[in-house]
């Protein structure tokens, strides 16, 4: 799997830190998570930045995923906030630079052939990111761009 991501990389620098970085903030975890999100939840048209952030944040805890699933299934309107995670932005920038994803003319993000190969490699290993895969299958393509737009309109109404 490393060959797909590190193709053409000549040098990698590692800086020892006094405190270890939690797994959910590590760049390779976030890239793998975003690739899974795009491969499972955004197959056909691409994925907006808001959608990637919403799903990524939903995957952080059991409570978040329950609230998120209630929102997208229409059983709850409690989901009134889109949180933007800086680690998602860093992973997106790295993924764009490594040509794992690309931005379409309409602004939506899609997997490149390299990204699709990475996605297939992640899916092959049943134990790798199994909880994320399970939760993403529950989400599927239920979160539409229309639902995100409606949520953003509700923000404007609430904040006025």
Report on the structure:
This protein is mainly alpha-helical. The chain has one domain. It has helices at residues 2-5, 27-41, 49-58, 62-72, 86-97, 113-124, 130-139, 145-159, and strands spanning 101-103, 109-111. β1 (101-103) and β2 (109-111) form a beta hairpin. The longest helix has 15 residues, at 27-41. The mean pLDDT is 86.
What is the CA-atom radius of gyration, in angstroms?
16 Å
Uncertain segments of ≥5 residues (pLDDT<50)?
A: none
* Number of domain units: 1
- Report how far the terminal alpha carbons are from each other: 49 Å
Helix proportion: 55-70%
Mean pLDDT: 86
Going by helix content, strand content and strand pairing, the class is: mainly alpha
Largest sheet: 2 strands, antiparallel
Strand order of the largest sheet: 1-2
Number of β-strand runs: 2
Q: Which percent range describes the beta-strand content?
A: under 5%
Shape: globular
Order of helix and strand elements from N to C terminus = HHHHHEEHHH
How many helical elements? 8
């Amino acid at each position: 799997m490393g060959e797909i991501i590190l193709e053409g990389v000549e040098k990698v620098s590692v800086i020892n830190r006094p405190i270890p970085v939690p797994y959910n903030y590590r760049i390779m975890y976030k890239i793998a998570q975003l690739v899974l999100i795009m491969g499972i939840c955004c197959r056909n048209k691409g994925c907006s930045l808001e959608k990637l952030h919403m799903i990524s944040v939903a995957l952080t805890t059991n409570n978040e995923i329950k609230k998120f699933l209630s929102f997208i299934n229409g059983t709850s309107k409690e989901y009134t906030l889109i949180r933007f995670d800086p680690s998602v932005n860093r992973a997106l920038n790295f993924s764009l630079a490594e040509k794992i994803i690309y931005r379409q003319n309409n602004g939506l993000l899609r997997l490149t052939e390299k990204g699709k190969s990475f996605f297939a490699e992640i899916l092959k290993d049943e134990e790798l990111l199994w909880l994320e895969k399970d939760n993403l299958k529950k989400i599927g393509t239920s979160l539409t761009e229309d639902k995100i737009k409606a949520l953003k309109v509700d923000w404007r109404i609430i904040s006025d």
